[in-house]
Amino acid sequence: MEFLYSIFVTPFVEMWTAPEFLAEVVLGGLMSGIMYSLVALGFVLIFKASGVFNFAQGVMVLFAALNFVGLIDAGLPIVVALIATILIMVALAFAIERVVLRNLVNQEHIILFMATIGIAYFLEGLGEMIWGGDVRPLNIGLPDDVWFVGDILIQQSEVFAAAVAGSLVIALSLFFQYTRTGRALRAVADDHQAALSVGIPLNHIWIVVWAVAGLVALVAGIMWGSKFWVQFSLSTIALKALPVLILGGFTSIPGAIIGGLIIGAGEKVAEVFWGAAYGGAIEEWFAYVLALIFLFFRPQGLFGEKIIERV
Amino acid sequence: MTTPLLQVNNIEVIYDHVILVLKGVSLEVPKGKIVALLGANGAGKSTTLKSISNLLRAERGDVTKGSIELNGEAVHDKTANDLVKSGVVQVMEGRHCFEHLTVEENLLSGAYTRGNGAEIKRDLQMVYDYFPRLWERRKSQAGYTSGGEQQMVAIGRAMMAKPELILLDEPSMGLAPQLVEQIFAIVKKLNEDEGVTFLLAEQNTNVALRYAHYGYILEGGRVVMDGEAEELRNNEDVKEFYLGMVKEGRKNFREVKHYKRRKRWL
Fold first, then answer.
1. Which domain holds residue B227?
2. Interior CA angle at A230 toward A227 and A231, to 5°?
3. How many domains, chain B?
4. What digits encode the pLDDT tens for the residues B60-112?
5. Contacts of A190 in chain B (CB under 8 A)
6. What is the interface pTM, i.e. ipTM, of the complex?
7. Does residue B259 fall inside a structural domain?
């Protein structure tokens, strides 16, 4: 009885009596949700264009962050390090296409998926070989003051992160919607064969999506790195992107964003208000259970592309 | 004699290194003509078209013997992308529109190899002039348009590449007879007004031979007969086996001995 009470009554009473606290919790959750969104976005890009689930996306976040922080520590100015890292990620896209994807063209998706697992381990090893396994602080001069809106406390760095993520999403949407290459990317996602038949070269398209996914990984890496430092556990945050994708839909850019926000806010609220009832650590599994429930009722996710059926 | 636009010399196609699909197909497509490739299911029509456009490799097929020449130049080592650039576009069987793109985006994606430019806008207008229906539906997702409209999208999309030769695979598939006539009439018009050469694969022999100039009949991966469309239409065997017409009314196939029916032109 007491247990039921602590699930169905107490949390709501707490929320009701301290709305500012609830707002702070939700805001904090939304901010970490943005981080999930950024990682999920990289998955969506590659999945849309090739139907391949890129297991290496999480490691790409780590790899980008490692290079960035490594170059800064080596004494390069931030802007130069940023440009150099962008070039590295683009070069990585070319290399992956040339060495891996081109040789596996027309293979089953599962084989390409296996290849991305290989890429993940390779990149992790390469990163450690070049930059070592130390945890490194990343400081790119994000503002670390706080603002008070009414009684609610807001971190400036988190607002900045949100702004960056927002502009990235808008830029990507415009790119997909209105450019020739963006249109070709969507065409390839719809029908490989037909895209080939009208002369869209798949190799170029793959390089473009992997490069864009690399850039998104860099942004995510910088954001995570400046918050939690650059360390190898960064690559495991990729796992959190999975429930985000199931929630938002594997093929939807807005889905990745909104899925990330829901999961970010949801797990924080669950942890703070319901955690006590379960003895804590809800944050760890909340996202996965939510994803499981979604799989039952809406397997294509909130914004996944509907399977078009004509009657 | 001038070289034809397209020349297929005795090609053999093998899928997956084992399955022999084409066993020596030769044909010629002269510039400015409509050539029909006729035959039943599995005769090798689509495979012939795909080996010309080099889409075969995406299905693990390969041309193992013979050669295909476009304007006297071998196509074997070119990619599908190169071929579109040199003017050969295939409209695949079953239309293959980009379902989640709008009709207009579908058309524009056909011009991918040509970059951006004012010319593309003009050609888009040209396609809308030939297919007024597409103008009405230009904002709809292609996946929600009807079969006839999708076929128009597919042909229009191919036209956007400014092709010299369109390889048209089974344009009549799944369409009402009236629509089939409409599509073929447009093909004829594109051929006459825009000077586009067509090589079309069709099961619907009747319609195809009325619109084409020349025809090849494929059976079991071989060309078994070819001739002017007019000539083929009046050929007794073609009439019997492909057009379903016989002199003395309908024939009861049970009464014909099996070996007699099987024996055709070989």
1. 6-234
2. 120
3. 1
4. 888 999 999 999 889 988 989 999 999 999 999 988 999 989 999 999 999 99
5. 98-101
6. 0.85
7. no
